[in-house]
Amino acid sequence: MKLTCGIVGLPNVGKSTIFSALTRAPAEAANYPFCTIEPNHGIVELPDERLDFMAGVFQPKKKIPATVDFVDIAGLIKGASNGEGLGNQFLANIRETSVIAHVVRCFDNPDIQHVRDDAKTDAPIDPESDILTINYELCQADIDTITKREDKVTRQIRALGKAEEKKFAGYRSAVDKILPLLRDGKCARQAELTEEEMAGIYDLHLLTVKPQLFVCNIDEDTIAEGTNKYVEAVKKIAQEEKSEVVVICGKFESDLVDIETAEDRKEFMDSVGLKESGLTVLARAAYHLMGLRTFFTGGPDECRAWTIHNGDKAPQAAGVIHTDFEKGFIKAEVYSVEDLKKYGSEAEIKAAGKYRQEGKDYIVQDGDCMFFKFNV
Known about the structure:
Elements: E1 5-8, H1 15-23, E2 40-45, H2 49-58, E3 62-64, E4 67-72, H3 87-95, E5 99-105, H4 127-160, H5 162-167, H6 169-183, H7 195-201, E6 212-217, H8 229-241, E7 244-248, H9 250-256, H10 262-270, H11 278-289, E8 292-297, E9 302-309, H12 314-321, H13 323-327, E10 329-336, H14 337-343, H15 346-351, E11 356-358, E12 368-374
Parallel strand pairs: 1-4, 1-5, 3-9, 5-6, 6-7
Antiparallel strand pairs: 2-4, 8-9, 10-11, 10-12
């Protein structure tokens, strides 16, 4: 499973338009179903005002942001779990991702076909039905995965006896909680699973256990208010599923990325009342949902954002820069970007007693600025 965010949804809901705006790399987008068959991959720079602030202090020769990997996956329709509309291929593409961004159409436009049950029949704009359709197909795929695993587990237990059965305690317990939800069209992520149960089903790579956020694709007339009846319907479902919601206008974002200067982009956003791009909000949400966090290094040569997993300790963070840093880790010198904002320089941070030395057990915090000492 790759550390990527898969963009999914019904055909023609704006997935490829949003992906193209995110990556500034043109994915095929057209008003007909399945115009995207092979998944498009894109690496997106993560805007971060903390890195911008550090660059303003250190005036480095270069500035390197963190990145997020996105995959644009073709639209699913009813029957995808049975192979309809190239469904098997698309479900396999989703399985390879770590997080799902589910794009939901939240705008009216008679010129853009909306389909749900099949690729030929027009369907009314109904976010609840759209989400239920996608969820049902993912649930059916997960039921099929569990059914196949059950056969394998049963054979292993018969062959190796009670001792082998104990190894599957976490798996059995998790499946007992998940299967009733899946059969009811609800996602596995809604089950309250222990760490042992999560470990028991990890290698199944279930589609509905993956963290998910909903992306409400609105029209330009809705940007100012930021919501409409469709968005509110999605928010209600997201609350039940314990998912986040990002509201974005794909058409506006597509126009925004074509504007060359920062001043003109700000003026364009101001014209509709946006303080930051919806793409920035989406990229940040996906990054955090993947369990990723950021620490920084700064100096006159380079200011850089480095990506780690939430909970990583100092040696692991050092290893992101270079494996030798982790092998020979001695200590880390640490302060936060907030300290830099407050005191203005590393010298003043030290004078205020906020410049710390941390050892191997230090859990790196999002927003830490770090300098590593090591010996190889």
